[in-house]
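Journal club side-thread
Mid-discussion, someone asked how the predicted structure for our own chain would compare to the paper's figures. Pasting it here so we can look after the session.
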Amino acid sequence: MSDPLLKVQNLRIELTTRDDVVPVIDDLSFELAAQESISFVGESGCGKSMTALAIMGLLPEKIGRVASGSIIFDGEDLTQASEDRLREIRGNDISMIFQEPMTSLNPVYTVGEQIAEVLRAHQGLGQQAAWTMAEELLDAVRIPNAKRRVSDYPFQMSGGQRQRVMIAMALACKPKILIADEPTTALDVTVQAQIFDLLNDLRRQTGTSIIMITHDMGAVAEMSERMIVMYAGRGAEIGGVDEIIEKPLHPYTQGLIACVPHILATVSAERERLLEVPGIVPSLREFGKDQCLFASRCPVRTDICLQKRPPIETDPSGHSVACWHGKDAS
């Protein structure tokens, strides 16, 4: 078996707060193969975006750092790379689609100028060649009249079109990894489906691996082969999407899946009650404690859950869970 394209091992990321230094990512490990798509799932504040920023080398300056562990990309440990080297990798080998395109795009430059800038910086293209490529990229992400729209400013485009521009920028240099951080936030369901179809088509055409960050279990099923359920900076459950959805082992994963409305078999059937995960994600002050951080919200907790951190156990199929009662889940 070939080596994974990306291997994150025992990653610990610390933030300096007013009160203390806290681990926002605590002993996280996962792998990403070439041309594979995986999803990070969990509530806000669980560490999904922070993991992505660490991979990109974009942790908050002065207050954020990789305390331990490694991020091996294509055989190179990015935690040891210089800032100049990280600039070469960002946008060229690893690209990211950020959550809100209106705040990510510069309002005083046309979308064509912003795409062309990426091509000039990373591919060394001249001004005219970069502009021509920008037109082709807008056409590739299915923006009508790309030759004309390349001269538009972000405010002249709809939310879905701006998101397509962000995808075009991210794919401009044919990266090996594309990180999509909530790429369909604030878009209606029809546009969401179009964006997912576009990403899947582009993955098949370019061979780019995708890391999807989302709250949406439907997006996970649509986009990914494997998923990583995050909770309070830790990996709660990792495995194949179909396997986890059919038989989730961690109570948190079970709760996330139970929150998804299901289409009833018949219109006349009695509507099922939509469940919810009680409580909220613990504050940063709680992160790093030697216990199960989900215990206060867990319906099956026992004394050991409050006393000791559960180990990660992996079955022969590669399905991993960090729960004292994971094997008892039905």
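Post-session note: The longest helix spans residues 189-206.
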